[in-house]
Specification:
Blueprint lengths: L1 H18 L14 H11 L5 H15 L4 E4 L15 E6 L3 E6 L6 H13 L6 E5 L8 H8 L10 E2 L18 E5 L5 H12 L4 E4 L7 E7 L5 E8 L1 E2 L12 E2 L4 H9 L28 H10 L23 H19 L2
Parallel strand pairs: 3-4, 4-6, 6-7, 7-11
Antiparallel strand pairs: 1-9, 2-3, 5-10, 8-9
Length: 347
């Protein structure tokens, strides 16, 4: 109970300190001295230990900084991709959309993604790519540029960070579009820089929720207990010189983070109903997408008298076609298929 109280108190205090607010309406705008508050709690809160008070203060402060400062352990860091066991998870959706999901933007990602895409392309004619960066992060901005190069021929500077300068980029066979990039409020670091760079290069559209706003270079500071405090020190900029903050999507789709985590496990699963209103996209594209099945097309051909060589599947034997329930992914797939149809009609 004491620990819970401390956490709530320090979270409130740290949030107030970060925003410059006041705890009471009649107080001044000057923040109280943190050490004074700490010592008063230590001396007067019954049953609290120094370790509990210190832990609550650190946890609350870092929580309120929303990823701009984090604790990392030891001198050798082991990074585990938050999105997937493999650098890239892949699938073909609705027979012709390449789905590439990234957990962390890091070294070697571009080569892995290129190989995965072409493996999919050998078995399916692909209409485009849905690049899923939801919950993705990373701090390798050179890797972000390498991935962006898979989708654009532009050789202008895409990103600037710290004192780093982009190395000359070798020409590669492009992954053909259209490209739709999926993001959410936990897309951070090099992943959101990648999304911003792809849009800056006119390589693709962004769909989902605004990103975390954590595209920054970091510096590690050693702590007495052997851990390190990683602090985001400088913003990453686009080649135009504009600092990357929260990346707003071109098409906004409001979905909670908890629902998106569930959809990542199975985008075809219908989630249990909740009191929240259903997610609604800001565009009206979805109602006009044709979801006609192959069997329906065959039937239409027969009605028109074109039955040469047509094999009609028995409707009673057809299994229902699975429908993508993930609102962000469903809209991305529909957008890609629609753009592919428009492109073919212009050829």
């Amino acid at each position: 109970m004491i620990q819970r109280f401390l956490n709530l108190f320090v979270l409130t205090l740290a949030g107030w300190l970060a925003t410059g607010g006041s705890l009471c309406a009649d107080t001044t705008d000057t923040a109280p001295d943190f050490k004074q508050v700490y010592e008063l709690l230590r001396a007067n809160l019954p049953g609290v230990t120094d370790a509990e008070l210190n832990s609550a203060a650190v946890e609350g402060l870092l929580h309120q900084l929303h990823g701009r400062a984090t604790l990392v352990g030891g001198t050798t860091e082991t990074t585990v991709s938050p999105g997937a066991a493999e650098p890239v998870q892949s699938a073909v959706l609705e027979s012709n959309v390449a789905y590439l999901r990234v957990g962390e933007v890091g070294s070697g990602l571009a080569d892995k993604m290129n190989a995965v895409y072409h493996a999919l392309a050998t078995t399916n004619p692909l209409a485009g790519v849905a690049l899923d960066l939801r919950f993705a992060d990373g701090n390798d901005y050179a890797a972000a540029i390498a991935v962006a190069d898979l989708f654009t021929t532009k050789k202008t500077t895409l990103l600037e960070w710290g004192q780093e300068v982009e190395a000359p980029r070798a020409a590669k066979e492009l992954i053909p579009g259209p490209l739709v990039v999926l993001v959410n409020g936990e897309t951070g670091g090099a992943a959101e820089a990648l999304a911003a760079a792809l849009r800056e290069a006119d390589a693709g559209l962004i769909i989902g929720n605004p990103t975390a706003g954590l595209a920054m270079t970091t510096r590690d500071f050693p702590l007495k207990n052997g851990e390190r405090l990683r602090i985001a020190t400088n913003p990453v900029k686009l080649g135009s010189g504009v600092a990357i903050s929260r990346v707003s999507p071109d098409i906004a789709v409001t979905v909670s983070a908890d629902d998106e985590r569930a959809y990542l496990k199975n985008p075809y699963a219908a989630l249990a109903p909740s009191d929240a209103p259903p997610a609604v996209a800001t565009n009206d594209f979805l109602p006009f997408v044709d979801h006609t099945s192959e069997a329906d097309l065959v039937q239409e051909k027969l009605k028109d008298g074109d039955d040469e060589g047509a094999i009609v599947p028995a409707r009673g034997q057809l299994e229902p076609k699975p429908v993508i329930q993930d609102p962000v992914l469903a809209r991305a797939v529909d957008l890609i298929k629609g753009l592919a149809i428009v492109h073919e009609s212009r050829l």
